[in-house]
Amino acid sequence: MFCYQCEQTAHGTGCVDRGTCGKTAEVAALQDVLLRRAMGLSVCALALARAGHPLVALDAFVENALFTTVTNVNFDADSLESLIGEANRLLAESRDAVGRAGLRNALFGPALAEGSTDRQALLVEAAEIGIDARRQNAGVDVVGLQELLTYGIKGMAAYAHHARILGRHSAQVNSFIHEALEALAKPVVAMDQLLALNLRCGEASLAVLALLDEANTGAMGNPEPTSVLMGHKPGKAILVSGHDLRDLASLLEQTAGRGINVYTHGEMLPAHGYPELKKHSHLVGHFGGAWQDQQRDFAAFPGAILMTTNCLMPPREAYSGRLFTSGVVASPDILHAPDHKFDAVIAAALAAPGFQEASPDRRHTVGFGHHAVTSVAGDVVAAVKSGALKHFLLIGGCDAATAGRSYYSDLAAAAPKDWAVLTLGCGKFRVIDRVEGNIGGLPRLLDMGQCNDAYSAIKVAGALAEAFGVGLNELPLSLVLSWYEQKAVTVLLALLHLGVRNIRIGPKLPAFVTPAILKVLVDNFNVMAIGTVEGDLAAMGAAA
Ligand code: FSO
Ligand code: SF4
User: What is this protein's function per UniProt (predicted)?
Assistant: First the structure.
């Protein structure tokens, strides 16, 4: 195997025997093959679409296949093998449709794959298409750009999946995913073409963030500032982690009146701000920290646990019997709750002891999405004009266990008292409790939501730029992002598409960003690695 798609890649260069995430070489290989099948399906879909016969039936499958290969989503070889079987079937059907349309000549590479499901044959195929083999043929820079695009569309697919289960999809988003996969199916593509595709991926990424915002707020209402208990109450309990609001909504409905309290974990914390979720009085609080704390948090949680998306870690025995996955998440020997039906989760919660006592009443306020913030835009603009509010500092993205991430906590704590701190993604757990006080009636810390709610930050920045009559880069706004997995790539590409400059990224730069790729990012966008807290704050303040 060779995988360097996330920040915790071994030695900062690549996982080769087994993933730091726990992914086995076999699972990595099957994920590579599944991605290759998705490329084949996209070649077919585009051949038909260009001839005026769109094959939209493939869109959802391709999204799910890509999402399945995101870090910490699927550790289960058997489920990957059955997805590959389904892909083979869809590919054969699609090829037939292409043939019937007289377009067989448009097919190439992975679209022509015969598609075995024999495990050994799949492992051999994986070795031929993997990053190692491709780097030998095309070089590290081309493959680096191919992978940047791959990770961009993996994140897009995850967000598109969430939007789709809430009833929204976008032809623009799906056709870009197909187009990117078609380009990735070609053995060699020129660097400048790959660069252009990556920038276009930013445009499509912005579209998918907007789509998911529409889906979430359409189904759940606009988030509103809400004080959340960061602890627990006595009683039976279910903990819901991941990003899938639809799963949480279904679980809340199915547990109504059952005497079970529901808690959020990790990236589910912002759910408390949505009117359609917070209306359930048994959604009582948030338990634990970010995803990388789950082995400690889940072991300490005396109820059932539902993991709706990444980031899943290999489960510990202490809680594996009361852990459930849903959606595209899978892990060997962990029960899966299909189709938003949670009877087994509820039974496990009732069988577990639950909390005996109440925790201290620690609180955190969520719900500062673009709707809430722009509705007080007048106050914010007045605070800036009066000099009470000097700077906006966005500290967010995805968190992980790797060293160097205390930078984000220290940065938040050291930010001047006349700076507002915006946060989002699971990176927020680094800044919660580090920023106190209010400016102009607003709290200094504004929690905007999940990682996809970077869209809210973009909307707010756009509204401020308009109010002050300046461009985004002229605002007193600094972006300091933490990255871990592929959704962070999607968000970064969306920001670059908007022309946002001077973004700081850490705790270290991705392994797939070669010096040549970094040079392009620096020359065009002045993207930079995080430095020291003091140095970065001084530079941000001076640039304001
Ligand atoms: Fe975090 Fe995981 Fe939301 Fe990521 S929970 S790391 S960017 O999946 O998606 O922020
Ligand atoms: Fe390694 Fe990350 Fe790939 Fe897992 S997802 S194998 S940790 S690079």
Answer: Catalyzes the reduction of hydroxylamine to form NH(3) and H(2)O.
